[in-house]
Design brief:
Largest sheet of chain A: none
Helix content of chain A: over 70%
Number of helices of chain A: 9
Mean pLDDT of chain A: 92
Low-confidence stretches of chain A: none
Oligomer: homodimer
Radius of gyration of chain A: 19 Å
Distance between the termini of chain A: 66 Å
Number of strands of chain A: 0
DNA sequence: CGCCTTCCATACGCCACCGTATGTTCCATC
DNA sequence: GATGGAACATACGGTGGCGTATGGAAGGCG
């Protein structure tokens, strides 16, 4: 019995809890129960709850964004990358639960700090893609913000009110790609 | 002293708390403290916490959506209404805090029930507006979903990562209107 | 084998919020 | 001006999570 746990075991379990129950579910005692351990283990690896939360968010920061970007970079430059990104991101209904939990968390300073970094990284990358298809700098930036907002809202809807989303995914994706990649003015 | 409180006083205070601290902040004892009363009052007007939450959400349902729609209906049919809606909704940084709290609330059944109703109402109305400017039924519906998602995401960003939003609001609004009202294909 | 560090369990006090039970005040009404 | 109900206050027990203190097992290492 009593398999020893690592910091990584804790943050992994915390990520699951985060996706399922939000920031509030990243709580030491319930996690300990799920891991078949007690608080003693948690307070050995982490100073307190906030330290566990911070470690969990930093792990999420690493894993969430870069994997998607790597995947997109496999495509040739230009429209193909934007399309690949939209498709990848409109799919995977359960893949984006963690960020939803973060974005609406009652202003914990640890959360807002990391959310800001991740948001800027993603929008910046998106703006780069728009630059590749001929958008000027400010236009690319504005369109990137719009596209990222659409992504977030879409994930929100998929979670909170999936009934209102289109059932036929194919034409929806096409429309989104079409509307969001058309050049301005 | 000791001004008597009504159900409406409680739901009003709960709405404020909801916007500020999320669903979790709709808690009886803190609200009682803010109202200068005690739990006795709350448990007189409401059976329990969930009843207070439900009453609060139903009030929000009434007040949030219809006021915006009335405002938009003052415009002439067609593009003017969509533009008015987008402008109204991209403004008012603090006006949409309650829904953000709701959309990412850890699956309380009361919340999801009402969020579903509100979402369907709004997307349905939006689809109607797109119909007025010549979109076919399915196209209007898909574009409405996209536009509503963009709205939600935008509100999210404004709250969680305002630094990443465009500083110059005017061209941003123009780009959004342009991208989201162009006819498909 | 014995020892020391690492990792964890147990047990405790604390706080915030829930819900209930019962006492208390205000006001209308006869 | 006594009485009954409406609208509270007060006091209590219960729950769930935080953080601390201290004791104990388990493995490397001499």
């Amino acid at each position: 019995m009593a398999v020893r746990l690592t910091r990584s075991d804790w943050t992994a379990a915390a990520l699951v809890a985060l996706a399922e129950g939000g920031v509030g579910a990243v709580a030491i005692e319930p996690l300990a129960a799920r891991l078949g351990a007690t608080k003693g283990s948690a307070y050995w690896h982490f100073a307190n709850r906030e330290a566990l939360l911070r470690a969990t968010l930093e792990r999420w920061e690493q894993e969430s964004t870069e994997s998607v970007i790597r995947q997109v970079e496999a495509q040739p430059e230009g429209h193909a990358r934007l399309r690949a990104l939209f498709e990848s991101v409109l799919d995977h209904p359960t893949a984006h639960l963690a960020e939803l939990a973060l974005l609406s968390a009652p202003a914990e300073p640890v959360v807002t700090e990391i959310v800001n970094r991740v948001t800027e990284r993603r929008i910046g990358y998106l703006a780069g893609l728009y630059g590749q298809i001929g958008f000027g700098r400010p236009e690319a930036r504005r369109r990137a913000v719009l596209a990222y907002a659409a992504y977030l809202g879409n994930a929100q809807l998929r979670r909170a009110a999936p009934k209102s989303l289109p059932t036929a995914r194919r034409p929806y994706v096409e429309d989104v790609v079409h509307a969001l990649t058309r050049p301005p003015r």
